[in-house]
Specification:
The protein has 7 helices and no strands. It has 171 residues and is mainly alpha-helical. Helix 3 packs parallel to helix 5, helix 4 crosses helix 7 and helix 5 runs antiparallel to helix 7. The longest helix has 46 residues.
Length: 171
Protein backbone atom coordinates (compact mmCIF):
# COMPACT_ATOMS: atom_id res chain seq x y z
CA UNK A 1 0.00 0.00 0.00
CA UNK A 2 1.49 3.39 -0.98
CA UNK A 3 2.22 5.90 1.74
CA UNK A 4 0.43 9.21 1.83
CA UNK A 5 3.10 11.88 2.13
CA UNK A 6 3.13 15.63 1.48
CA UNK A 7 4.01 15.18 -2.21
CA UNK A 8 1.27 12.68 -2.97
CA UNK A 9 -1.26 14.66 -0.92
CA UNK A 10 -0.65 17.73 -3.08
CA UNK A 11 -1.33 15.84 -6.29
CA UNK A 12 -4.63 16.25 -8.04
CA UNK A 13 -7.33 13.58 -7.64
CA UNK A 14 -6.60 12.48 -11.23
CA UNK A 15 -3.59 10.54 -9.93
CA UNK A 16 -5.90 8.44 -7.78
CA UNK A 17 -8.04 7.31 -10.73
CA UNK A 18 -6.00 4.62 -12.44
CA UNK A 19 -8.47 2.03 -13.67
CA UNK A 20 -9.70 2.41 -17.27
CA UNK A 21 -13.38 2.26 -16.37
CA UNK A 22 -13.21 4.90 -13.64
CA UNK A 23 -11.30 7.22 -15.96
CA UNK A 24 -14.54 7.76 -17.89
CA UNK A 25 -16.38 8.97 -14.82
CA UNK A 26 -13.94 11.44 -13.27
CA UNK A 27 -15.23 15.00 -13.02
CA UNK A 28 -14.86 17.30 -15.98
CA UNK A 29 -12.57 20.19 -15.02
CA UNK A 30 -13.19 22.63 -17.83
CA UNK A 31 -15.76 22.67 -20.56
CA UNK A 32 -16.99 25.41 -22.81
CA UNK A 33 -20.61 24.36 -23.21
CA UNK A 34 -23.14 21.91 -21.88
CA UNK A 35 -23.36 20.17 -25.24
CA UNK A 36 -19.62 19.47 -25.15
CA UNK A 37 -19.85 17.97 -21.67
CA UNK A 38 -22.88 15.83 -22.41
CA UNK A 39 -21.66 14.86 -25.87
CA UNK A 40 -18.36 13.78 -24.31
CA UNK A 41 -20.17 11.84 -21.61
CA UNK A 42 -22.31 10.09 -24.23
CA UNK A 43 -19.24 9.28 -26.34
CA UNK A 44 -17.41 7.97 -23.27
CA UNK A 45 -20.32 5.66 -22.50
CA UNK A 46 -20.36 4.33 -26.06
CA UNK A 47 -16.56 3.93 -26.06
CA UNK A 48 -16.80 1.91 -22.85
CA UNK A 49 -19.58 -0.19 -24.41
CA UNK A 50 -17.52 -0.70 -27.58
CA UNK A 51 -14.45 -1.70 -25.58
CA UNK A 52 -16.47 -4.19 -23.55
CA UNK A 53 -17.96 -5.73 -26.68
CA UNK A 54 -14.49 -6.07 -28.25
CA UNK A 55 -13.18 -7.80 -25.13
CA UNK A 56 -16.10 -10.22 -25.16
CA UNK A 57 -15.50 -11.00 -28.84
CA UNK A 58 -11.81 -11.69 -28.11
CA UNK A 59 -12.49 -14.07 -25.24
CA UNK A 60 -15.66 -15.90 -26.30
CA UNK A 61 -15.61 -18.05 -29.43
CA UNK A 62 -19.26 -19.09 -29.67
CA UNK A 63 -20.77 -16.64 -32.16
CA UNK A 64 -24.39 -17.60 -31.40
CA UNK A 65 -23.82 -17.01 -27.69
CA UNK A 66 -22.24 -13.62 -28.38
CA UNK A 67 -25.11 -12.52 -30.64
CA UNK A 68 -27.72 -13.64 -28.11
CA UNK A 69 -25.89 -11.81 -25.33
CA UNK A 70 -25.56 -8.62 -27.41
CA UNK A 71 -29.26 -8.79 -28.31
CA UNK A 72 -30.15 -9.04 -24.63
CA UNK A 73 -27.76 -6.21 -23.79
CA UNK A 74 -29.22 -3.94 -26.48
CA UNK A 75 -32.80 -4.82 -25.57
CA UNK A 76 -32.25 -4.23 -21.86
CA UNK A 77 -30.41 -0.96 -22.54
CA UNK A 78 -33.28 0.34 -24.69
CA UNK A 79 -35.86 -0.87 -22.16
CA UNK A 80 -34.14 0.98 -19.33
CA UNK A 81 -33.87 4.21 -21.34
CA UNK A 82 -37.47 3.93 -22.54
CA UNK A 83 -38.72 3.34 -19.00
CA UNK A 84 -36.70 6.29 -17.72
CA UNK A 85 -38.12 8.55 -20.45
CA UNK A 86 -41.66 7.28 -19.86
CA UNK A 87 -41.44 8.06 -16.15
CA UNK A 88 -40.51 11.63 -17.12
CA UNK A 89 -43.14 12.04 -19.81
CA UNK A 90 -44.68 15.05 -18.10
CA UNK A 91 -41.32 16.86 -17.78
CA UNK A 92 -39.02 18.17 -20.49
CA UNK A 93 -35.42 17.02 -20.46
CA UNK A 94 -32.70 19.59 -20.00
CA UNK A 95 -30.10 20.24 -22.72
CA UNK A 96 -27.49 18.05 -21.04
CA UNK A 97 -29.84 15.06 -20.90
CA UNK A 98 -30.96 15.54 -24.50
CA UNK A 99 -27.41 15.74 -25.86
CA UNK A 100 -26.13 12.83 -23.79
CA UNK A 101 -29.06 10.52 -24.55
CA UNK A 102 -29.08 11.45 -28.22
CA UNK A 103 -25.41 10.52 -28.54
CA UNK A 104 -25.88 7.27 -26.62
CA UNK A 105 -28.92 6.20 -28.65
CA UNK A 106 -27.47 6.97 -32.08
CA UNK A 107 -24.03 5.52 -31.46
CA UNK A 108 -25.28 2.46 -29.57
CA UNK A 109 -27.60 1.65 -32.46
CA UNK A 110 -24.67 1.87 -34.90
CA UNK A 111 -22.40 -0.23 -32.66
CA UNK A 112 -24.91 -3.03 -32.23
CA UNK A 113 -25.68 -2.92 -35.94
CA UNK A 114 -21.98 -3.45 -36.64
CA UNK A 115 -21.98 -6.40 -34.25
CA UNK A 116 -24.58 -8.14 -36.41
CA UNK A 117 -27.75 -7.63 -34.39
CA UNK A 118 -30.79 -8.18 -36.66
CA UNK A 119 -32.71 -5.13 -37.89
CA UNK A 120 -35.99 -6.22 -36.24
CA UNK A 121 -34.26 -6.29 -32.85
CA UNK A 122 -32.59 -2.91 -33.41
CA UNK A 123 -35.82 -1.20 -34.49
CA UNK A 124 -37.86 -2.44 -31.57
CA UNK A 125 -40.90 -0.67 -30.18
CA UNK A 126 -38.79 0.72 -27.33
CA UNK A 127 -36.27 2.13 -29.78
CA UNK A 128 -39.04 3.77 -31.84
CA UNK A 129 -40.54 5.28 -28.67
CA UNK A 130 -37.13 6.63 -27.65
CA UNK A 131 -36.52 8.06 -31.13
CA UNK A 132 -39.89 9.85 -31.13
CA UNK A 133 -39.26 11.33 -27.68
CA UNK A 134 -35.72 12.42 -28.61
CA UNK A 135 -36.97 14.14 -31.79
CA UNK A 136 -39.54 15.98 -29.70
CA UNK A 137 -36.97 16.98 -27.06
CA UNK A 138 -34.42 18.10 -29.67
CA UNK A 139 -37.04 20.23 -31.41
CA UNK A 140 -38.15 21.71 -28.09
CA UNK A 141 -34.54 22.47 -27.16
CA UNK A 142 -33.92 24.12 -30.53
CA UNK A 143 -37.02 26.30 -30.21
CA UNK A 144 -36.19 27.20 -26.59
CA UNK A 145 -32.61 28.10 -27.53
CA UNK A 146 -33.77 30.25 -30.45
CA UNK A 147 -36.34 31.99 -28.27
CA UNK A 148 -33.75 32.54 -25.55
CA UNK A 149 -31.19 33.90 -27.99
CA UNK A 150 -33.70 36.18 -29.72
CA UNK A 151 -34.74 37.43 -26.28
CA UNK A 152 -31.12 38.26 -25.54
CA UNK A 153 -30.74 40.14 -28.81
CA UNK A 154 -33.81 42.22 -28.05
CA UNK A 155 -32.83 43.01 -24.48
CA UNK A 156 -29.14 43.75 -25.09
CA UNK A 157 -29.60 47.08 -26.90
CA UNK A 158 -32.08 48.25 -24.24
CA UNK A 159 -29.52 47.46 -21.56
CA UNK A 160 -26.81 49.37 -23.44
CA UNK A 161 -29.10 52.35 -23.94
CA UNK A 162 -29.99 52.32 -20.25
CA UNK A 163 -26.31 52.32 -19.31
CA UNK A 164 -25.64 55.28 -21.63
CA UNK A 165 -28.58 57.18 -20.16
CA UNK A 166 -27.30 56.60 -16.62
CA UNK A 167 -23.81 57.78 -17.56
CA UNK A 168 -25.22 60.90 -19.22
CA UNK A 169 -27.38 61.66 -16.18
CA UNK A 170 -24.43 61.31 -13.81
CA UNK A 171 -22.19 63.63 -15.88
Amino acid sequence: MPRLDAESASRSPDHIVRTPVLRYFRPVKEASTTSNISGDLGRQYVNCLRSSMEQIRQRVTDELFILAMFERLYTSQMTIICTWLTERMDRALNAHQVNCLSTIIKKSFAEFELQGIPEEVLNSKNYQTIQNRMRLEEATAAVSETTFLSGLRVSMPKFSMLEKAKKMALS
